[in-house]
């Protein structure tokens, strides 16, 4: 069977593969200065006289503002906020947060809602921990003053703009490090905005910005985080998503039927599982680090499935040391357990991979196609081998009948 790669040649291919991938993931530079703001946004920005304009890091949102002194204790911010809203009903929110770090809870927000009949309503809302837990979010007065609120929706571009004059007290809000939060939701009921989607873009829509200089404090950190996320995704896709299933295919089709690789199948199987396990664990560990870096949100399902996968693959790896010997009477049951857990793990891995990719909505298309490509390739190979096994089995049976 010299048509198959020996473990030695496989180990030399792997580093090259990694190098290629690392080169492939370059740091994304989130555009800062908004040189190409959308026309819809610029219309309102001109009308509102805002002097500073920036593209925000998520949700394709754009922010424009002008700061002026209101009186000795208050500062006036003329603000324009815009983003695409694709659904018929939905809402757009922008707000300031007096807490030490920008986050959803504590935000004093202006929210514009697009009603099903096309009318636009705007109001102020006090976002509290109750809101996050799912209590109705209804308009209230807030401790910043909001005047001249306007909303506009441009049908052709599906672009929603919100503009207002926000007057903030100097105690509590520091213009040179203002915590602000933005959000886009796709559901509303009258004056009540309903929960926004639960994707990364919706969670990363906070920052601390110096409104005098225009610079955001978070750009470096967020770029680093987005780099780590890519490494996390790639390592998991290679480790859990590629090597582990290849190892299973080797064990299923090269142990006895249809191909008999004598001692090789076991060596290749173990090597694939060890490689998959270590690469996957590295990706998993980066995932845990990413989790600690976002104190205000957790992707519960993705996280628990990841912990489950890690725990039970560790158990599978213990097979290297703990499996009963070939002659042991328990070996039959042990084999059954090892195989069943193996297939179950593949299913959970596939589930969690798609779960993780969905978190990246709406820019998850490339990830989706790459992973679907891997799955199609692997299951194609498995299908061919399965059919081959059956043909061989039937032929052998017919042969023995004659
Ligand atoms: C309308 C009702 C709303 C509900 C039910 C809701 C619910 C939630 C939930 C459950 C999370 C994720 C928590 C987690 O996974 O740990 C979250 C995160 C977040 N939401 Fe909301 N939300 C609402 C409105 C808003 C509004 C109006 C804004 C913006 C002004 C906003 C901004 C954020 C941000 C920035 C995050 C990221 C985590 C954080 O900073 O706390 N949300 N929301
Ligand atoms: C914008 O500035 C122009 C001229 O500087 C002024 O006439 C106009 O009233 C201002 N508009 C607003 C909304 O402040
Ligand atoms: C549209 O709906 C809103 C809320 O449901 C209502 O307040 C408003 O009067 C309606 N506008 C028109 C033009 O029907
Ligand atoms: C808004 O909510 C905060 C708690 O997050 C509370 O301290 C504050 O008094 C509320 N403001 C108003 C006007 O209700
Ligand atoms: C606002 O923040 C800047 C920069 O951190 C700091 O130098 C300044 O003292 C702060 N101003 C107030 C009023 O806290």
UniProtKB/TrEMBL annotation:
| The record's free-text note on cofactor binding | Binds 2 heme b groups non-covalently.
Q: Which Gene3D superfamilies match?
A: 1.20.120.1770
Spell out the GO cellular component terms annotated for this protein, sorted alphabetically and separated by semicolons.
Answer: membrane
Q: What is this protein called?
A: Cytochrome b561 and DOMON domain-containing protein
Q: Which organism is it from?
A: Punica granatum (Pomegranate)
Q: What domain of life is recorded for the organism? A: Eukaryota
- What terms describe the molecular function in GO for this protein? metal ion binding
Write the record's keywords in alphabetical order, separated by commas. Electron transport, Iron, Membrane, Metal-binding, Signal, Transmembrane, Transmembrane helix, Transport
Recorded hits in InterPro entries, A to Z, give:
AIR12_DOMON (IPR045265), Cyt_b561/ferric_Rdtase_TM (IPR006593), DOMON_domain (IPR005018), UCP037471 (IPR017214)
Name its co-factor(s). Answer: heme b
Subcellular localization is given as: Membrane
Domain (Cytochrome b561): residue spans on this chain:
197-394
**Upper taxonomic lineage:** Eukaryota, Viridiplantae, Streptophyta, Embryophyta, Tracheophyta
Question: Can you tell me which residues bind heme b?
Answer: 232, 269, 302, 338
Q: Where are the transmembrane segments?
A: 233-254, 266-289, 301-320, 340-360, 366-385
Q: In the record, which residues are listed under signal peptide? A: 1-31
Q: Does the keyword Protease apply?
A: no
Q: Which residues form the DOMON domain?
A: 59-185
């Amino acid at each position: 069977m010299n048509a198959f790669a020996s473990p030695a040649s496989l180990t030399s291919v792997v580093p090259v593969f990694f190098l290629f991938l690392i080169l492939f993931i370059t740091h994304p530079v989130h555009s800062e200065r908004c040189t190409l703001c959308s026309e819809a946004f610029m219309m309102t920005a001109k009308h509102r006289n805002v002097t500073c304009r920036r593209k925000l890091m998520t949700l394709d949102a754009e922010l424009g503002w002008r700061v002026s002194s209101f009186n000795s204790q208050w500062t006036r911010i003329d603000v324009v906020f815009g983003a695409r809203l694709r659904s018929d009903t939905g809402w757009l929110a922008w707000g300031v947060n007096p807490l030490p770090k920008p986050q959803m809870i504590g935000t004093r927000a202006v929210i514009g809602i697009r009603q099903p009949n096309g009318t636009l309503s705007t109001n102020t809302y006090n976002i509290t921990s109750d809101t996050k837990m799912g209590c109705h979010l209804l308009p209230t007065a807030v401790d910043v003053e909001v005047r001249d609120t306007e909303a506009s929706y441009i049908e052709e571009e599906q672009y929603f703009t919100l503009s207002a004059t926000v007057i903030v007290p100097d105690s509590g809000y520091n213009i040179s490090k203002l915590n602000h939060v933005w959000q886009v939701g796709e559901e509303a009921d009258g004056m009540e905005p309903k929960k926004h989607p639960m994707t990364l873009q919706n969670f990363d829509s906070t920052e601390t910005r110096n409104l005098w200089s225009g610079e955001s404090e978070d750009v470096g950190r967020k770029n680093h985080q987005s780099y780590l996320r890519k490494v996390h995704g790639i390592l998991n896709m290679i480790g859990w998503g590629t090597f582990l299933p290849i190892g299973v295919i080797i064990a299923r089709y090269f142990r006895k039927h249809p191909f008999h690789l004598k001692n090789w199948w076991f060596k290749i199987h173990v090597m694939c599982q060890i490689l998959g396990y270590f690469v996957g664990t590295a990706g998993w560990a980066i995932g845990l680090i990413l989790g600690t870096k976002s104190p205000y949100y957790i992707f519960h399902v993705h996280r628990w499935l990841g912990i489950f996968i890690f725990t039970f693959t560790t158990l599978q790896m213990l097979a290297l040391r703990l499996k009963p010997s070939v002659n042991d009477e328990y070996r039959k049951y042990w084999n059954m357990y090892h195989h069943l857990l193996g297939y179950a793990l593949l299913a959970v891995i596939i589930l969690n991979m798609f779960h993780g990719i969905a978190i990246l909505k709406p820019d998850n298309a490339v990830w989706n196609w790459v992973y679907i490509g891997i799955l199609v390739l692997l299951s194609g190979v498995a299908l061919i081998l399965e059919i081959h096994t059956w043909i061989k089995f039937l032929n052998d049976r017919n042969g023995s009948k004659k």
